Amino acid sequence: MYRTTFAIVDLSALAHNIRLLQGRLAPGVRLLVAVKADAYGHGVRPVVEVLRREGVHQVAVASLEEALQIRTFDKDIPILILGAVGVDECLVAAEYKLDVLYTDVCPLSDIPRLPKPLAMHIAIDTGMNRLGLKSTDAVLSVIEAMADREDIRLAGVCTHLACADASDLSHATRQVERLLEAVRAMGDKGCTPPLVHAANSAGLLRGDAWQFDMVRVGIAAYGYSPDPDVLPMPALRPVMHMYTSITRVADVRPGETIGYGATYTAQRSMRVATIAVGYADGFPRILSNRGVVRVRGCEVPIVGRVCMDQAMIDVSDVPAAQVGDFVTVFGIDPPSAWTASAWRALGPDNRANWLQETFALAANEEGRNVLSLSTVAPLAETIPYEILCQINRRVPKLYVEA
């Protein structure tokens, strides 16, 4: 490691979150965890290995390509593809033991007889208007068609809740009612789906009313409530923490401007630091003149536009700030062992191990605050999901079991 911009992925926090969520399940309810988009940017292989160890029933991805990536290191873990699939994908999914959603993209009649059975979950559009069958009659028609196919197995019926994290539950309640109508109609035709699932992270945090047979969680596994104001869950632990360092500190006089476009003009004498992170790393450009980071235990503002590889911050109120100081982009404050002199004393080949070991040792260090993505994301007019998924591959991810 040469550049001091990196992310720590705390797999013990992931395991903690999974156990916490499992503890909220009603008896007999299964847990599925979404690992699409490289496990929300955390790295799919280490995440899946933890989920397997913690007894998660199934994982979900967005595409066949993502599922096949998991199959390169785990041949057996149950995988559900949540995106629409066509005939070609169905053929491959059957070969690799992958569950798929049935939507109207690929009629059963278009799928040739399969040499291996394919498990399908019927997606019902109850109000999201994204994927799925919109009428109970359409669901019953598919059930009848499946009955004539020994190579296609009904694995479940599901829907996706659009507003489970809202303060007003009327939309989610109507969606659940429409799902249950379809399930009852299936029962009247003598078909009981093996699994019924609807609840996402928000649905699980609401309680057990919408849990049915399985719950599909995403962001909660990675340490965040879908809406911390409506559904506070302080016991969740953020899994990813991102850091950079100060590369320059300079005095700025009143009237001087900072950054591209001269969008910030100093109104007083200031100390401005440059940090080695930018929008190419996944640090949103919209945080220009509005975002914050943490330096030496203090929250400080971004000044000027976020650049591709760098950003500037106002450290006027942090007189001890100096070149080499570690900076919290989001997550927990750095361990006290992380100093510029300690970094320089190590060779590039030894720095990653040192960061991992010192982070793990400092897990119980007192006085370490957190700059939560629940704070950062609204400043960027987005949600924690997007920032996590956007952390660029050039940012090394260091895995720890704190």
Amino-to-carboxy terminus distance: 21 Å
What is the number of helices?
Answer: 12
Low-confidence stretches: none
- What count of structural domains? 2
Give the biggest sheet: 9 strands, mixed
Query: Radius of gyration, rounded?
Result: 24 Å
Mean pLDDT: 96
Shape assignment: elongated
InterPro entries: Ala_racemase, Ala_racemase/Decarboxylase_C, Ala_racemase_C, Ala_racemase_N, Ala_racemase_pyridoxalP-BS, PLP-binding_barrel
Modified residues (N6-(pyridoxal phosphate)lysine): 36
Keywords: Isomerase, Pyridoxal phosphate
Active site: 36 (proton acceptor), 260 (proton acceptor)
What topology does this entry show?
Elements: E1 6-10, H1 11-22, E2 30-34, H2 36-40, H3 44-53, E3 58-61, H4 64-71, E4 79-81, H5 87-95, E5 99-102, E6 118-123, H6 136-147, E7 152-158, H7 170-188, E8 196-197, H8 201-206, E9 214-217, E10 240-252, E11 257-258, E12 264-265, E13 270-275, E14 292-295, E15 298-301, E16 311-314, E17 326-332, H9 340-345, H10 351-361, E18 370-371, H11 373-379, H12 384-390, E19 397-400
Parallel strand pairs: 1-19, 2-3, 2-9, 3-4, 4-5, 5-6, 6-7, 7-8
Antiparallel strand pairs: 1-10, 10-13, 10-17, 11-12, 13-16, 14-15, 14-17, 17-18
Helix pairs in contact: 1-3, 6-7
Care to describe what's here?
The structure is a single chain. Strand 7 (about 150-160), helix 7 and strand 8 form a beta-alpha-beta unit. This protein starts with 5 loop residues before the first strand and ends with a strand. The radius of gyration is 24 Å and the shape is elongated. With about 400 residues, it is an alpha/beta fold. The strands form three sheets. Strands 1, 10, 13, 14, 15, 16, 17, 18 and 19 form a nine-stranded mixed β-sheet that branches. It has helices spanning about 10-20, 35-40, 45-55, 65-70, 85-95, 135-145, 170-190, 200-205, 340-345, 350-360, 375-380, 385-390; strands spanning about 5-10, 30-35, 60, 80, 100, 120-125, 150-160, 195, 215, 240-250, 255-260, 265, 270-275, 290-295, 300, 310-315, 325-330, 370, 395-400. Helix 1 packs across helix 3 and helix 6 packs parallel to helix 7. It folds into two domains: about 10-220, TIM Barrel, CATH 3.20.20; about 240-400, Lyase, Ornithine Decarboxylase, Chain A, domain 1 (Beta Barrel). The mean pLDDT is about 95. Belongs to the alanine racemase family.
